[in-house]
Amino acid sequence: IVSLCVQKYSHVSLAGNKDPRAYYRTKTWWVGLLLTVLGEVAIFVSYAFAPLSLVAPLGAVSVIASSILGFVFLREKWKPKEFVRRYIVSFIGCALTAGGTYLFVTFGPNSHEKLSAENIVKHVIGWPVLLYLLLEIIAFCLLLYFYKQRNATYLVVIVLLVSLLGSVTAITVKAVSGMAVLSVQGNLQLTYPIFYVMLVCMVATVVFQASFLSQASSLYDSSLITSVNYILSTAFAIIAGAVFYLEFNHESVLHICMFLLGCVICFLGVFLVTQNKRKTKAFEPYVTMDMMQGIPTIHDKGRAVQPDYNGSFSYGTLVNSESVIPAALPAVPEQVSAFPGGTPVARSAAFKQD
Questions:
Q1: Of 68, 153, 254, 291, which alpha carbon lies 20 to 30 A from 348's?
Q2: Going edge to edge, which strands form the sheet with 286-290?
Q3: Dihedral, 226, 228, 234, 240 alpha carbons, nearest 10
Q4: Which of 217, 227, 220 is nearest to 60 (CA)?
């Protein structure tokens, strides 16, 4: 989160100072990139030392951190009533997220095994894992069919595809991380084929997740995608950890119920925080003037971005991308009307623009 704020500061500084340099030529952007890499490496290594069901929900901490940093670095001034109205939901969401995080960390699974290649192979060939993978493949194929063939571009469908892939990613990341840590400690695991199978699956699922998320971001609001994706991905990751790594086998019913309660509270908090965003402006009508006929056309439906219109100018645009000169309005002959007394008055047509 700090790395994202640093990189955002780099972009804002360049724009505010009208600096012609590219963003990748600034030191602050590279510092942010370095922090991003360090953070991702730390998350990757953490899978080797803690249960999957405990690491996956901790992504909610980043939501709290981003809300706090966004509030600290916000430079706008608010009146007390506006401040309370704007941030009260975020404060409630952060409080719920923190409380839920405390519950699932306190009552989460504590057992953890060393993930050698032999142990991973035993987990893979177990019938619970094979049944889980079979059901997941069937569900993924059905959702992909409705998404591609039936044009079911609902957010839930797209995020479910991402979450199903994410559960496989979580399994493979934990396996690769565990074997890599054991190799660094002296027990070499890189000679086993299962390591490279897990590595290929990890990279492939990450790439396809990024593709589906990119498609979702072009259709829906990013805050809604964030909350739904976190909830579904975390839920499937917990299920994957329970089935593949048997993380809840030695836990009591009370601990499992409190863990699930903490996850639900955390999900609610994340939803409140991500949904408390400023709404984007709705589409506003605009007018285009046909250059050849001089006929104004009002566009009251369509995209928020004005579409290209050949041979026309759009009111409100700053740049004429077509580099053409507006055509002169057609001349209207003068009309002469007689008034009592015989004095002629010349009247010309008046063109009014709104």
A1: 291
A2: 296-299, 286-290, 312-314
A3: -130
A4: 227
* HEC-encoded secondary structure of 243-302: HHCCCCCCCCHHHHHHHHHHHHHHHHHHHHHHHCCCCCCCCCCEEEEECCCCCEEEECCC
* pLDDT reported for residue 307: 43
Over residues 176-192, the pLDDT tens digits come to 999 999 999 888 999 99
Structure tokens at 225: 């995608």
- pTM for this entry: 0.71
Q: Which helix (H) or strand (E) holds 75?
A: none
Strand partners, 337: 345
Summarised one tens digit per residue, pLDDT across range 29-63 is 788 788 888 888 888 888 888 899 889 888 888 77
User: Residue 150, SS3?
Assistant: coil
Q: How many angstroms separate the CA atoms of 87 and 90, rounded? A: 5
Backbone angles phi, psi at 337, to 5 degrees: -125, 140
Q: Is 337 helix (H, G, I), strand (E, B) or coil?
A: strand
Q: Cα–Cα–Cα angle for 190, 194, 198, nearest 5°?
A: 95
Distance (Å, rounded) from C-alpha 98 to C-alpha 60? 8
Torsion of CA 103, 225, 48, 32, to 10 degrees: -110
Task: Assign 3-class secondary structure to 214-245.
Answer: HHHHCCCCHHHHHHHHHHHHHHHHHHHHHHHC
Contact predicate 155/227, CB 8 Å: no
